[in-house]
Here is the input.
Amino acid sequence: YLPHRDEPGLTQFVTFRLADSFPESLRSEWEHLWKTENDHQRRAELEAYLDQGRGECHLRRPEIAQLVEEAVRFFHGERYALRAWVVMPNHVHALFKVDATPMAEILESWKKHTAQKANRLLGRRGEFWQADYWDTFMRDGEHELETRNYIENNPAKAGLILDPKTWPWSSVRFRDEYGVLKL
Here is the structure.
C-alpha cells in the first residue's frame, strides 16, 4: 500500500467503488488479486474484476448513476478541473486537476453526498461506498491522455456497449470533434 499523494496542482486519476463490488460470497474469485506483488499488474487485475460487475451494481440504475455524475461535475471549475469521468455499474473513474481543496476532501464530499441520496432512493441504510479509493497522479500529458482514453473507453472494454459515445454517464459525450471537453 502506498499513501495517497494529495497536493494542489496535481492531476489525479481516482477510482472509487461500491461497498459490495468485491462480494464476500465471491471471495475465492478475487482474494488472490490483492496478493499480486507488482502494483501495476495488481491494479489492472483488480480493475478487470470490477468490470465484471460483481455486487448489486446500484450504479446501473439511471437515477443513481445520474446523481453520481452530477456530484462529480458539481464543483468543476471551483474546487477542481474535471478532465474525464465515467460512472460504471459498481465503480467510478474520475480524472481531475486538484486546486486548493485536497483530493481527499473532494472524494469524501462526492461519496457522502451520493451515499445519502442513493440509500434514500434504494430504501436502504448502511455503507454504500467502499471507504478508501485508488489514486494515481499524472506524470505528464501523455500519461493523462492514456488515462483519459482508459476512462472513456471503460464501458466498451467491459462489454457494456460498443461505442463509448453511447454510454450515458461519461465525459466522452461532452467532447467536441477535436476531443476538447465542453462543460
Observations:
- Strands lie at 11-17, 80-87, 91-98, 134-137.
- The longest strand covers residues 80-87.
- Residues 103-122 form the longest helix (20 residues).
